[in-house]
Amino acid sequence: MNRYAVRIGSALALALSFQLGLFTFANAAENTAYEYDGKRVVFETLVQRSGGPAVSADDPGLQQLVRNAGGSLTWDADNQYVLVTFPGPTVISFAIGDAHYLIGSVSHPAAFAPFVRDGHAFVPLKDVLRALKLPAFSPGPSVSDVAATPAPPPPLFASPVPSPQPEQLAQVTGVDVQAQAGSVTIRIGISGNGAYEWHRLRVPDNRWWIDVHTARLATAPIDQNGGALVSAVRVRQQPADTVRVALSLPASEQVDVSPGNEGITIVVSSRVVAAATRGSGTFGSIVTANASLLASPGASPARYVPANPHLIVLDPGHGGSDPGTVRGGVQEKSLTLDMAMRVRDILVARGWQVVMTRTDDRDVFAPNDSARDELQARDDVANSRGARLLVSIHVNGYVNSGPHGVATYYYKASDLALAQSVSRRIASELDMNNNGVIKDKLYVVNHAAMPAALVETAYISNPDDFTLLQSGSWRQKMAQAIADGIVDYTESN
User: What is the pLDDT of residue 2?
Assistant: First the structure.
């Protein structure tokens, strides 16, 4: 993965047994000056949330605090992670939009999900202190206590609490529900930027909801019937700065979430699937700021006309001098080539022309070449032939074994429908965690002239996923799902 995006591959880890000095407040809770081991620490970017204060990952006070404890704190904008690393066996990681954090591979509930504001990542300060085994703002559970006592699930709606900083919140201006034959489209109009996360409860509840963070509901609460596929649509202001849109579904219908510069679009389809149970993303200019750079003035990515509408290009990730992620002698480059060749065989049998960027263990451009040259060479295979679409196949990896499952990435507006089609098929045909469709500026997807998608099939760093990746029958199922998703897309676009 190292040449496709800046992925987290290795890091120094955390020694949680280091000796800590006294950490106390110098002022009241709403102030920003504290003392740690006799040293004054001042936080410059504190923002009050309903679950407590949030602090920017690049706040000088937070950076000083972590350095005083012997560690290092970094914000990985490409992968939307904040990492705290120490010399030792583990890493503390916070993911944007995820109301949990990892200490090693153990998940702990967070006071609220980290979020991005004006390009800066904010994390819950109390949870950072708890993860570092520093005293919190008030007596609370230790790390071991938190691990031993899982937090109860939150209620579907909580009592509204006035926001402390309304001028900095995005505004949810309305929710429009349109029922069509076999689907329901729900458009959440939002003015401003922010992050969201969605969750799904399985049968018998069949409830689905999306939380729009750092937002205020500009209308009255909404209760509406959405038709046969959505028995109820409810919109409420959550504590302080979150707007929740909750759907009641008759069954496990497919739900697709598409963020944009004017809000979020949700499409509920009649197909019943074993869909993902959670996901996250961003909306507003955070999502769309670079979209205009993808085409020449006046051009639209959606208007791409393939010179060869019968040609599909498959890109097995890595190869040659670049093994990709590795575990126990198993290399990503071999797994991706195997799965891509299986997808090729399925598509050729269905009458499609297929070209692969590589058919053996080699670099596409040259051995030990630059990332840009290698990635552009893969795009050139598709662009020079005027292909209908491009699909890149990968294996994911992380610094610890916690993250798992499949994710489908897109970037250009014209990529979204393809990514959704592939993700839907994977969700319905494979019994595994599905992290859904994610927008990310990956080079191969970004620089493909045609609709493109990148599938991170599983995490080689996760034991369960690693077992799946080593199974030929599982790789065949993944290939079948990817091929089915490609065909679904071509039949409707």
Answer: 40
